[in-house]
Design goal:
Largest sheet: none
Oligomer: single chain
Distance between the termini: 22 Å
Number of strands: 0
Number of helices: 14
Helix content: over 70%
Order of helices and strands: HHHHHHHHHHHHHH
Radius of gyration: 20 Å
């Protein structure tokens, strides 16, 4: 079965992890994970779903899967591709630890109601460093994959990726899911109409910035074209530099935006939000425990 190419989005997710609306976004993520978990009967089934979702959503792994399917690899090339895949798995474990640290920091900030602290600034810096490191790691992995292939193989893979890009962009960017997640978190927090309206204004602004951070259809297709040629790394680095500049510009306002969002919430709502980020909404609201740690928000 052909896997769908997803444009890189982890950079924007890390950025949102330190932004104002992300405080609701983390809770919304926990709520959606919680609902999915309640429909699973076995922990093994949850792990299988999580693994499939990771392959589907990680653009580097999608490229690797497409290379395996359409690249007509030699046995040696297949073995080298497996080495690259294993290295990516090790890096993912390290990123999971960083996400847990960011979660703990977000909980502390929400409970205190104060984002103007050295701890929060450090969390923002860590988010930027992690996002930038992720971009470099992805570029390195893609460059290795590119170097493995002969020109004819790259062309075959490029043709398959191009079809997946067109299909992916025809489906839209997922704004509806973001809005639904916001509404779900707002309901959990029992926000007033005034609070919802103010936060949605901020969400709209952030959503526009997120769209600019994500590579456009033209940018992704340009990368696919470069993949078929010999100067692929230059194309990767050019896109990385431009997106990193946007990332840093946005993160410069993280403290201000987060403080504005926290000021809108009551102390009780901040405590509930912090509990939801830390424990998951089902446990907070109903006393039920769910294995949310195996899932990853995208």
């Amino acid at each position: 079965m052909q896997r769908k190419f997803r444009v890189p989005s982890r950079t924007s997710r890390l950025l949102l992890g330190a932004g104002a609306i992300s405080l609701l976004g983390v809770a919304a993520c926990a709520a959606s994970v919680d609902e999915r978990a309640s429909r699973e009967d076995e922990a093994a089934a949850q792990e299988l779903v999580s693994s499939a979702r990771e392959r589907y959503r990680d653009p580097v792994r999608v490229v690797i899967s497409t290379v395996r399917e359409h690249g007509s690899l030699t046995p040696q090339q297949a073995r080298q591709l497996t080495v690259i895949t294993n290295e990516l798995t090790e890096e993912r474990v390290s990123r999971r630890q960083v996400r847990e640290q960011m979660r703990a920091s977000a909980v502390n900030v929400v409970r205190s109601g104060n984002a103007r602290t050295a701890q929060f600034d450090e969390s923002v810096d860590e988010a930027v460093r992690t996002a930038e490191a992720r971009l470099v790691q992805s570029a390195n992995a893609l460059e290795e994959v590119h170097a493995l292939l002969e020109p004819e193989q790259r062309k075959a893979v490029g043709t398959a990726l191009r079809a997946q890009v067109e299909e992916r962009f025809a489906q839209g960017r997922g704004g509806k899911r973001m809005r639904e997640g916001f509404d779900r978190a707002a309901a959990y927090l029992m926000l007033s109409t005034f609070q919802v309206d103010k936060l949605k204004e901020m969400q709209k602004e952030l959503f526009g910035e997120t769209e600019r951070l994500r590579p456009s259809r033209a940018e992704v297709l340009a990368l696919v074209d470069a993949f078929e040629g010999e100067d692929f790394r230059s194309a990767l680095d050019s896109l990385r530099v431009s997106k990193t500049a946007l990332l840093r510009k946005r993160m410069a306002r993280a403290s201000e935006r987060t403080q504005t969002a926290l000021t809108l919430l009551t102390a009780e709502q901040r405590d509930l939000l912090a509990d939801m980020i830390q424990e998951g909404p089902r446990k907070v609201l109903f006393g039920e425990s769910t294995p949310t740690e195996s899932a990853d928000c995208h």
